[in-house]
Amino acid sequence: MLPELGQIALILALLLAVLLATVPLIGAQRGNNAWMLTARPLVYGQLLFIATAYALLTYAFVAHDFSVAYVASNSNSLLPTLYQYPAVWGAHEGSLLLWVLILAIWTVAVAVFSKKLPQIVIARVLAVMGWISVGFLSFLIFTSDPFARLLPAAQEGNDLNPVLQDPGMIFHPPLLYTGYVGFAVAFAFAIAALIDGNVNVQWVRWARPWTNVAWGFLTWGIALGSFWAYYELGWGGWWFWDPVENASFMPWLVGLALLHSQAVTEKRGSFRSWTLLLAIAAFSLSLLGTFLVRSGVLTSVHAFASDPRRGLFILTFLAIVIGGSLLLFAFRAPTEEKGQPFVAASRETLLLANNLLLSAAAFMILLGTLYPLLAEALNLGKISVGSPYFGLLFTILMTPLVLLLPFGPLTRWQREQPDKPMRMLAPWGLLALAAGAIAFFAWPGGTAKTVAACVAGIWLVFGTLRFVRERFVQAKGRFTAEMIGMCLAHVGLAVFFFGVLVTESTSVEKDVAAKPGQHFQLRGYDFRFDGTQAIQGPNYQADRGTVLVTRGDRLINTMHPEKRAYVSGGSIMTETAIDGTMFRDLYVAMGDSLGNDGSWALRLHVKPFVRWIWLGALMMAFGAFVVTVDKRFRRPVVVMDANG
Amino acid sequence: MIRRLLPLVAFILLASLLYVGVRMNSGRDNSAIPSPLIDKPAPAFSLPVLGDATRKIGNKDLLGAPYLLNVWGSWCVNCREEHPQITALARSGKVRVIGYDYKDAPEDGQRWLAQFGNPYEIVIADQDGQAALDWGIYGAPETFLVDARGIIRWKAVGAISDEVIQQQIEPQLAKLAASP
To answer: How many other CB atoms are found less than 10 A from the CB of residue A515?
Structure first.
């Protein structure tokens, strides 16, 4: 009975979404206030019904209702309670429901925080979000019903994919979806502006914090996913250029370009069409990511159920949403740039370079991700484009980005003497090069990449600090929240690049066949294998190894990697043991048992500065959040602004 | 106006490609593609064994019985997809399976085998992809069937599925067994 109620709730939500997508929009076209005013109540009602459906599905998981097909395939009576809640989004149907729920929450947030905006704008924005909701709700109801019954009911469930039974899994998808869906706000604003035909700078100001929040969540989501892959897959890698990872990375890059370009449009009035196009692109890439993951068009380690019918459905939806927006863009985008004029040596130019580099990176990733599909379509067979391509391309595009970044904040809008920022930054550039030279000779096992790590890290940090000093000299230390956020994010980027390059150049690893009692030396650490023990988990059995790590006479840690066999389905999972500090991770993963004498294949890693990768990402996201508390975003919105 | 239509045009191209992808996905066919090397002797090569760079393997060392040369790399996602099928085929003992680690750092290749299992009789490493040019390899995965006298008999590009094994590789092997 309850699952049927869930279905009904979803259908009611769809009906409200259809009303939301049409009534306020028609009201806005005709200037009918009463029709426009329906937008907010419809938004609240939609959230109520979707939340009800979501709660009912969660209840089906907690109550082990194996008569619901989705529950039977993704849960088990032995599944620990902690994982019964995230199990709701453990597979296709439930994660779509989560998507729709998060979209409904964002829409309500827009409705609540937009009291100061003109009625006509908010009616259009909410209606556009309603269209997206219609698309996803019908996808959910018509192709991916999470409440479908299994008759007769299963006695026992199949269990949640063991890869997903991990604390990282609890937060990864919601954070990622919050980021994806958040770009819908900037998108809705862009479409509303295109319908209106006037790109009002005030609206861009209003939309900016939303883009920052969405981008910050996406950053956290991606970073958490990467961290999870690092400790869960047992490979010691943190990024695989897998199609699904790429699908989340493309909107991240374009979203990053968007938040810089929005700042230009809001402050100087320039880049209007460009900002609109990026807003459309960021959300379109989020949708494309969903399509790539859900349609099974691309093969990936993230094995999701694929179904050509679903693929066609999303593709049609993509064609309507993206094609429609781009058509609107072609006919309605502002034809003349109304912003303040600027010359080549100006902050505008630098931000344009930032935008072009980030967009080019996103485009190259799109090309690399779709190349296998193109090859297959042209009958060249199925081919993988791997890290050789992505790594090279990324180095080429990120080098100028790092080089130019410190110049941005120090260069004035409109016109700047080119030698002024040069002179300010020259000593710090020299310092970075000197540090690189020292690293080359002094860093144990350092390579050209280690040198690049030091040069890039120091250049970005000191370049940013130079800007901080400039504020103290010129503005007596007055900082806006926007500047603090920017500095945090830029230093975060430095930390990130430093972590990536140092880890990639100086990590060492060893695959060993270990007999109990045997010692192994790696980078000054002594690893002693003390055999394994059989242990019994709630829904798995495991061999738990003990590895004693010492350095000199000091005991570092006793590590316990595990090899788990899950009861249902018999999947084998590697649980790595990690001893992490800010400066290095010791990482032990178990391979296979090598015979009856208790020896095992072990993989030992020492990874210097690997945590800085995720620390940098956290800082970047945090910076994006700090920007949103800036006072400028709380200034009253002036309704009529003739200058646009 | 024309400039403003460019994003739309780009999207239409993309959408058509995705449409083709969806259609193909519903009736997948990993057919062997014609290669100019079919029925020609395998190219001469001499490559180190993965994990033991001092030991070299050349095409002369592999004569005597048919073998399947499976090109893979640790960076290749589709290789993981076909790996269970390759493993099953190798374990069945129907044919020798030789691994060809393509454009890969040897450590990465060994780690990949440790993770996913090593079904190969031997794995040769072509780190810079030079020898692969002679074989006409342009990606991974690719698979060649070479007969006992060193003649290439069959080639497939892309992941090997159970259907490809049953409908193509096994008949090819039967043909080889019938004609000495």
So the answer is: 14
Whether A97 and A53 have beta carbons less than 8 Å apart is answered as: yes
Residues 6+ apart with CB under 8 A from A304: A91, A92, A293, A294, A296
B139/A318 Cβ within 8 A:
no
Question: Distance (Å, rounded) from C-alpha A138 to C-alpha A248?
Answer: 23
For the stretch A303-342, pLDDT in tens is 333 455 677 888 888 899 999 999 999 988 877 667 788 8
Whether residue A381 and residue B110 make contact (CB cut-off 8 A), yes or no, is no
Nearby residues of B127 by Cβ (< 8 Å), 6 or more positions away: B101, B103, B104, B105, B106
Task: Please give the single-letter amino acid code of residue A384.
Answer: S
Tell me which residue of A348, A183, A350 sits closest to A265, measured CA to CA.
A348
Chain B contact present for A334, CB below 8 A: no
- On whether residue B54 sits in a domain, the answer given is yes
Residue A642 confidence class, pLDDT cut points 50, 70, 90: very low
**What whole-number distance in Å separates Cα of residue A74 and Cα of residue A165?**
11
Residue A50 pLDDT greater than 50, yes or no: yes
Contact check, Cβ <8 Å, A301/B77: yes
Q: Which domain holds residue B68?
A: 29-178
| Cα→Cα distances A215→A48, A207, A250, A363, Å | 26, 13, 12, 18
State which amino acid sits at residue A446.
Answer: G
Cβ contact, residue pair A308, B25, below 8 Å: yes
Q: Is the dihedral of CA A326, A221, A465, A505 positive or negative?
A: negative
CATH code of the domain covering residue B105: 3.40.30.10
Q: Using DSSP bridges, classify how beta strands A562-566 and A540-551 pair: parallel, antiparallel or unpaired.
A: antiparallel
CB-based contact A323 B110, cutoff 8 Å? no
Is the CB of A382 inside 8 Å of chain B's CB atoms? yes
Hey, what domains does chain A have and what are their CATH numbers?
Answer: 190-404 (no CATH), 405-507+612-617 (no CATH), 508-609 (2.60.98)
Q: Does B126 touch chain A (CB under 8 A)?
A: no
DSSP structure class, residue A95? H
Structure tokens at A56: 């009912």
Residue B19 domain flag: no
Specify the number of domains making up chain B. Answer: 1
Chain A within 8 Å of B13 (Cβ-Cβ)?
Answer: no
Task: State the ipTM, two decimals.
Answer: 0.79
Q: What is the pLDDT of residue A640?
A: 43
Place of tokens 């460009």: A274
B3 touches chain A (CB under 8 A): no
CA distance A253 to A358: 6
Of A99-113, A133-147, A266-280, B13-27, least confident by mean pLDDT is: B13-27
Task: Find tokens 């890693």 and name the residue.
Answer: A605
pLDDT mean over A582-599: 87
Please report whether residue B18 resides in a domain. no
For residues A108, A110, A111, A114, the Cα torsion angle rounded to the nearest 10 degrees is: 160
Amino acid identity at A203: W
Q: Is the residue at B1 inside a domain?
A: no
Per-residue pLDDT at A497 exceeds 80: yes
Mutate to test the interface with B, among A233, A383, A563, A605 (most CBs of B within 10 A): A383
Residue of B11, B26, B118, B127 for testing the chain A interface, max A β-carbons within 10 Å: B11
Question: What is the CB-side half-sphere exposure of residue A241 using CA atoms within 13 A?
Answer: 24
